[in-house]
Amino acid sequence: MKVQPYLFFDGRCDEALAFYKRTLGAEPGMLVRFKDNPDGPKPDGLPPGSGDKVMHAEMRIGETVVMLSDGHCGGKPVFQGMSLSLTVDGDDDADRIFAALAEGGRVQMPIGKTFFASRFGIVADRFGVSWMVGTTPTG
């Protein structure tokens, strides 16, 4: 059994893929646009001109595959009640990645030393995805 995050960017998926490639080194994988759906026309409820929007995409961040979509292409992604946890090996990487994710986003907890890690912070990126960025926990 495997659990994978599936994020819906409501029309901003291409922008998100480029952002995560630049900030996290995400490696793009499968990408299917609504116009390429082999089962026929786009689902009801999508705005006109949504054919070039992303129906399904995948990207690899480290050892994890994250799935993404434009969903219903409404232009206002909403991410609530969840956070992606990103664990890195060193303080410099944690600081760099946190700052990159915070660009255009909102810091929820500044990155700093905690009792469980030498660096830890929480940031919502420019799309509203919450990230908990930290170093490998100390034991």
User: Regions with pLDDT < 50 over 5+ consecutive residues?
Assistant: none
Gyration radius, in Å: 16 Å
Number of separate helices:
2
What strand order characterises the main sheet?
A: 1-4-3-2
Strand content: 25-35%
Pfam families: Glyoxalase (PF00903)
Domain Glyoxalase/fosfomycin resistance/dioxygenase: 5-133
Region (Disordered): 34-54
InterPro entries: Glyas_Bleomycin-R_OHBP_Dase, Glyas_Fos-R_dOase_dom, PhnB-like
Can you describe what's shown?
- This protein is α/β, with parallel strands linked by helices.
- Helix content is 17%, strand content 34%.
- The chain has helices spanning 13-24, 91-102, and strands at residues 6-8, 27-33, 54-61, 64-69, 84-88, 106-112, 120-124, 130-135.
- A hairpin with a 7-residue loop joins strand 6 (106-112) and strand 7 (120-124).
Quickly describe the structure:
The chain is α/β, with parallel strands linked by helices and 139 residues long. It has helices at residues 13-24, 91-102; strands at 6-8, 27-33, 54-61, 64-69, 84-88, 106-112, 120-124, 130-135.
List the helices and strands and how they pair.
Elements lengths: L5 E3 L4 H12 L2 E7 L20 E8 L2 E6 L14 E5 L2 H12 L3 E7 L7 E5 L5 E6 L4
Task: Give keywords.
four-stranded mixed sheet; 8 strands; Signal recognition particle alu RNA binding heterodimer, srp9/1; 2 domains; 2 helices; alpha/beta; 17% helix; single chain; elongated; 34% strand; 139 residues
